Amino acid sequence: MERFIVAITGASGAVYGARLIEAIVAAGGEVACVVSGAAREILRDEVGWEITGDGAARAATIAAACDADPARITCYRNRDGYAPIASGSHRWRAMVVAPCSMASLAAIAHGMADNLIRRAADVCLKEGRRLILVPRESPLSLIHLENLAAVARAGGQIIPPIPHFYTHPETVEEVVAQTVARVMDHLGLPHDLAPRWRGRRPAAPGDGG
């Protein structure tokens, strides 16, 4: 069973992390989840998840919300510097920070591994493992752009939550699914979250061109 880290930080868009956990587990993966303090409040307000208690209690809450086996989800506190994912000797396939706040981005870009999320991201970069950030901010200042570029130069991938409209999404869930689908593609995991582009329809007689 392949292991993935999903970190949810303090930016609007916690639903991206929540839906990504669901998708990874549905694809047969195992998830190590870390939720920052600010993100716990946003998850409650935007998704309805009450993330409280110890790691086992948090995993049970998330598993119930995702209709998943609790054994496939492990939760760590963001201040737990002794968690397995803080070490490069622990094996996992990739890490996704969704959403990624600008504070977390700045810390990751400059190697400030002062909590578990930032340390795990730092480990990914130093070990050459896949790190995906889903940044949630607009507009982006030059500082934000330079931090994103620094992470990209270090080997990270940036997948901003930008919807496409050729599939004519009708609900917020469909828009969210588009970004989660892109992340799943880059993780190499199967899914049927969003329709894929299959080219334009043949021109009808008389359309010209």
Q: Can you tell me about this structure?
A:
The protein has 209 residues and is an alpha/beta fold. The protein has a single domain (3-187), classed as Flavin prenyltransferase-like (Rossmann fold). The chain contains seven helices and six strands, in the order βαβααββααβαβα. It has helices spanning 14-26, 37-47, 55-66, 102-109, 116-127, 142-153, 172-187; strands at residues 3-8, 30-35, 73-76, 94-100, 130-135, 157-158. It has a six-stranded parallel sheet with strand order 3-2-1-4-5-6, sandwiched between helices. α1 (14-26) packs across α7 and α4 crosses α6 (142-153). The radius of gyration is 18 Å and the shape is globular. The termini are far apart. The mean pLDDT is 93.
Q: Span from first to last CA?
A: 51 Å
CATH topology: Rossmann fold
* Helix-and-strand structural type: alpha/beta
CATH class: Alpha Beta
Order of helices and strands: EHEHHEEHHEHEH
In which range does the helix fraction lie?
A: 40-55%
Rg over C-alpha atoms, rounded to the nearest angstrom: 18 Å
CATH superfamily: Flavin prenyltransferase-like
User: What is the residue-mean pLDDT, rounded to a whole number?
Assistant: 93
Main β sheet profile:
6 strands, parallel
Which geometry do the CA atoms define?
globular
Q: In percent terms, what proportion of residues is strand?
A: 5-15%
Q: Based on the coordinates given, report the CATH architecture.
A: 3-Layer(aba) Sandwich
- Biggest sheet, spatial arrangement of strands: 3-2-1-4-5-6
Total strand segments: 6
Q: Compute the number of structural domains.
A: 1
The helix tally amounts to: 7
**Which regions are unreliable across 5 or more consecutive residues at pLDDT < 50?**
none
